[in-house]
Amino acid sequence: MYVAVKGGERAIDNAHRWLEDERRGDRKVTDLSVDQIKTQLSLSIAKVMAEGSLFDPELASLAIKQARGDLIEAIFLIRAYRTTLPRFGVGKPINTDKMIAKRRISATFKDIPGGQLLGPTFDYTHRLLDFKLLADGSIDEFEPGKDTEQMFQHVTQLLNNEGIIETEETSSSEADSPDLTRQPLEIPANRALRLQALTRSDEGFLLGMAYSTQRGFGRNHPFVGELRIGLISVEFEIPELGFNIEIAEIEISECETVNQFLGSKIHPPKFTRGYGFVFGQSERKAISMALVDRALRWKELGEVSDGAPAQDEEFVLYHGDNIQATGFVEHIKLPHYVDFQAELELIRKIRKTAFEAKKDE
Amino acid sequence: MSNSEEDFNFAYLDEQTKRMIRRALIKAICIPGYQVPFASREMPMPYGWGTGGVQVTAACLQETDVLKVIDQGSDDTTNAVSIRKFFERVAGVKTTENTGKASVIQTRHRIPEQVLSEDQILVYQVPIPEPLRFLEPRETETRVMHALEEYGLMHVKLYEDISINGEISTAYAYPVKVNDRYIMDPSPTPKFDNPKMNFCPAIQLFGAGREQRIYAVPPYTKVISLDFEDYPFEASRAEKTCEICGATNTYLDEVVIDDKGTRMFSCSDSDYCNSRKS
């Protein structure tokens, strides 16, 4: 009897118990609390919330703990939970002009109304291991200045006042913004749907795609017009009340790029835009998303495609989802011996025919 | 997450989602072999583990159903065990290993040896629903090819196989034509199983979760494996006898049983093999 395929049920139960044991690790070390993850690993949480498409730091922390720190596994846990939630309706469009920013920079102007605000960034840290953290993690509390309590107009709006950048179209109806999680993705996708797919795409995938555009595969000459990170409120209209109420305050990262211009002798040239929007503090992904968004817009901007991967919406949108990708890539470890058997029979037969033909020569 | 009754709707999916899937299924039954897009949900098992089949099964199950789950023809393979346990937990339905007693059979990579009946549903797990995918990677293109019944590329591929290898070198997921119209991927079943699909009395449903497609073959529908007059289709198998039950007409697993590479052959359909043994 082929013992390997028998006793599957007991093997699965034992594998799960072993997994739990390894997750907990050395019992002499204190159990990691969800609160610790929530307050000290906030950038991991940002990734899980963004790619899980669910803004809930507590559940994201739980998922990270349960997944032993494997963020794709944590994202998967969040997605599987999210899909069981009822959809009550659509929130009001959020206005990032009203963001209370903790970070806000522009690479296009030396100074901007409201000023450049670095915020809690790694940018100018020296990447030297801080061995003090091995022993004592105590850090003085930091009180941000008053600058962080203002709202700022977008930098791209300053350009738009002059008419030298394209105006963003706002979608006029809900039908313009289909829900990727409730309808199958069909190509061609409009920009709203593309942006939905990009914001939940794998950060590493988007980063690679964005990088490829900078190295010449679909180049689009980006400047970071503005990058801002901060809190914005989410409003929802309750039909029974007839007015909007604030249901949440969420942290987001937003990146607007100013890209190469279009135009001719007749139509005056204008800068174009790329847009990135991600849950949590995740500027690497927000910038990447803006570059890829811009690369995917070649058709609507009347450009000629280079045939670069980042310009190919079917390629980008179908392959950026890390939950789909990890499932399908990893599924080849499941048993395939029925198919392999069919291949064995076929290759033996073809080889036999070939050997016989050789003998006849 | 303790047990089924409190935490989950019957068969896990909410009723709205089931209705959406049933609509896709009805459309699929009406247009045999046509791939219907559907809003596949994330399931609590990974894509590639049978999420499409699980969603189709969830949408079909009723409390009186008896479910059988097989992978590689066997009820004992780990993923079959896992999916069966999932439905025991979230639907509380009866399960069986007996092909004849099941009303719904979810399968990966095999069609049971026993002939299915009119009151059965066979649900296939499908990884890549598009039979033209490896000839044309773009979905936008392949949908047009199906719409125009533009299947020349597939015949050229089969012809090239013959010219290079002396025969059609597809051993599983062997393309079929359904109801004289759509070319369909039978899922990665060995081509030995293809003839079982033709005029099958049971309903055959196919779910591809990651690819968000559902398709179907209604009962008693013509399903023909593509071939040429001078190179007819052949439902091949290992030319051996099952060493457990002595069957000579079943699909066999080849098992390496020692370090010297000695092989043993036995039925891949474990229920069929057991029923002949006893």
Features:
heterodimer; A: alpha+beta; four-stranded antiparallel β-sheet; 13 helices; 14% strand; globular; B: 278 residues; alpha/beta; three-stranded antiparallel β-sheet
Descriptive overview:
- The complex is a heterodimer of chains A (361) and B (278).
- Chain A has 361 residues and is an alpha+beta fold.
- Chain A contains 13 helices and 4 strands.
- Chain B has 278 residues and is an alpha/beta fold.
- The mean pLDDT of chain B is 94.
- Chain B has helices at residues 4-7, 15-30, 51-60, 78-90, 139-147, 152-165, 194-197, 270-277; strands at residues 36-37, 66-71, 94-95, 104-108, 121-125, 176-178, 182-184, 203-208, 213-217, 223-225, 252-256, 263-267.
- Classes of the chains: A alpha+beta (361), B alpha/beta (278).
Largest sheet of chain A: 4 strands, antiparallel
Strand order of the largest sheet of chain B: 1-9-8-5-4-2-3
Our count of helices of chain A gives: 13
Query: How would you describe the shape of chain B?
Result: globular
Topology of chain A as a string of helices (H) and strands (E): HHHHHEHHHHEEEHHHH
Strand residue percentage of chain A = 5-15%
Overall pLDDT metric of chain A: 90
How many alpha or pi helices of chain B?
8
Radius of gyration of chain A: 25 Å
Which two chains have the most extensive interface, and how many residues on each? Answer: A-B, 51 and 60 residues
Q: Beta-sheet strand percentage of chain B?
A: 15-25%
Note the gap between the termini of chain B: 40 Å
Shape of chain A: globular
Oligomer, anyone? heterodimer
Largest sheet of chain B: 7 strands, mixed
Mean pLDDT of chain B: 94
Strand order of the largest sheet of chain A: 1-2-3-4
- Tell me the span between the first and last alpha carbons of chain A: 44 Å
User: Low-confidence stretches of chain A at least 5 residues in length (pLDDT < 50)?
Assistant: 1-5
Q: What is the ordering of alpha helices and beta strands of chain B?
A: HHEHEHEEEHHEEHEEEEEH
